[in-house]
Amino acid sequence: MNWLDAFSVSLQAEIVALVFAGVTIAGLLIMRRLVPWETLRENHEVAGFTFGVVGAFYGVVLAFVIVAAWQRYESANESAQQEALALANIFYLSRGFNEPMRSEMRSAVHQYARIVVNNEWEAMAKNDFAADSATANRLWDDLVAYKPADSRESLLLDKSLDQMADLNNARRLRYVYYSNDLPSVVWIVIYVGSVITIGFSYFFGTRYYYAQALMCGAFAALIGLTILAISELSTPYQGAVHVSSDAFRAVLAGVGSPGSTESQPR
Questions:
Q1: Hey, how many other C-beta atoms are within 10 angstroms of the C-beta on 207?
Q2: If you ran DSSP here, which 8-state letter would residue 42 be given?
């Protein structure tokens, strides 16, 4: 459903609900023309039992997948927050160093946050992001090459390296969550299961076609909306529902430009 990413969540929901309901109702109409409702009514007992088993199984599958997708989204969001927090902590710690190290670290933090907000987040949203460690390597190089002047700076350097390690780990996780989707076999089960489950609803016959069409359409729309939710949550950096870059924007605003008066991340 990547083609839907350009639309808002409400419009996506409307499109998916209408498509699933429309296709299902059209299929029901074809079924009614091929098989009289009286014939279908004779098999209600067997069809009802089978439909109950299939529907329950598919419902469990959808519930499991949507919970897994939600946990994945939350983990991606948490990882992004940890990355931004580590970057802010590095800036705080830089204030304890002597010049020119203080200005160099502040400049490196500003560059990192600016590239994440202005370049990387947009590239991830367009599914065109390539992992690049140049900005992180600049911070690493500054810290590793620095020789502390006293015990206070030695302590600050140790803490900065710890925060840099946390930032690097969170950055790698961000790339993992960006590049990995749900396994293809899961999507096969979801889509094939939806066809089978909706198809079984055709094996019931009611005297009034419009009543059955309304029920089948609503049932299909519900399945479609659930699949849409899974699709949105499984790609935490693309689509209308995505992880925000606000944490990095806060760091960028707090650090300010490298030549400005020093401020604190909010």
A1: 9
A2: T
